[in-house]
Amino acid sequence: MPPTRLTRLAFDRRSAGFDRLDFLLAEIGQRMQERMQVIRLAPERALDIGCGQGLGLAALRAQYPDAQIAGLDISGAMLATAARRDPQRQPGWLGRLLGKRPTFDLVQGDLASLPFAGEQFDLLWSNLALHWHPEPHRVFPEWHRVTRDEGLVLFSLFGPDTLRELRAAAAEVDDDPHTLRFVDMHDIGDMLVHGGWSTPVMDMETLTVTYETPQKLLSEVHAFGGYRGPGRGGLRGRGWHDRLVAALERRRNGDGVIPLTFEIVYGHAWKLPRREKQALDEEGRAVIPLDRIGRSRRRG
């Protein structure tokens, strides 16, 4: 089965309980918006890539009220929830009363094979989605293709230190980390450049979420697909789970809660016109006049 199909099926299954992660998506989304405050951009068309259940679409609408905004996700079940969150998609008398087109265009598709013609968007936005793609090196060239000249990509994803306490606890049980591995920030930056993007900026921060019980921690990590156990059912499976719970219990801190690390990597880059890409310094970096960085895009 193709890896992207496995991803689609996995998120279709997780959709029912995925709202448990709204707190993390909302927090990182807010931090991404704060980064946008220093970037001069007035997009006509914006795309939320990996929009999930649509939590970030309303935030984009609030920030860019005049922009046409679309959301893309590989999971049909996630998009169905996003559609229900759109007040102008409501069925029955409420939909007739509003009498307007949907607030957001929702499209199902793969992050590395976008169902759009080239040069369609001024802003690509992706919050905690890129790390789920099995071939991230294929993603950035495709994102570059659908972006207009002087357009911006802004994204966040999990870095390698994410879930380190859970991996350490699992290592006490067997030699399998039972968690996803995430790509290093520097490798993501290299992928951006190889994908055609210019003036990339990468940074990261570490957040700690605390849990009252190991069961709550495992439930939430499983909900977003970061944790897999040793198999289904059986005494061996239950015994493994009990040992993992005990290992997590031993990681309670001085406040009596269990910490879990999330390394959040942020990146943004520009699609420059071809003529500007030709101006390079001695190290091969693009040379851009300061008055052109972040210039608002205006179309007649």
Overall description:
36% of the residues lie in helices and 21% in strands. It is globular and about 60 Å long. It is α/β, with parallel strands linked by helices. It has a 7-stranded mixed beta sheet, sandwiched between helices. Helix 2 runs parallel beside helix 3 and helix 7 packs across helix 10. Residues 280-284 and 286-300 have low confidence and may be disordered. Residues 47-155 form the Methyltransferase type domain. Pfam families: Methyltransf_11.
Mind sketching the topology for me?
Elements: H1 3-14, H2 22-36, E1 45-49, H3 55-63, E2 68-73, H4 76-85, H5 92-98, E3 105-108, E4 121-127, H6 139-145, E5 147-158, H7 164-171, H8 185-194, E6 198-211, H9 214-223, H10 234-249, E7 258-271, H11 274-277
Parallel strand pairs: 1-2, 1-4, 2-3, 4-5
Antiparallel strand pairs: 5-7, 6-7
Helix pairs in contact: 2-3, 7-10
Short description:
Converts the free carboxyl group of a malonyl-thioester to its methyl ester by transfer of a methyl group from S-adenosyl-L-methionine (SAM). It allows to synthesize pimeloyl-ACP via the fatty acid synthetic pathway. The chain is of the alpha/beta class. It is built from 11 helices and 7 strands.
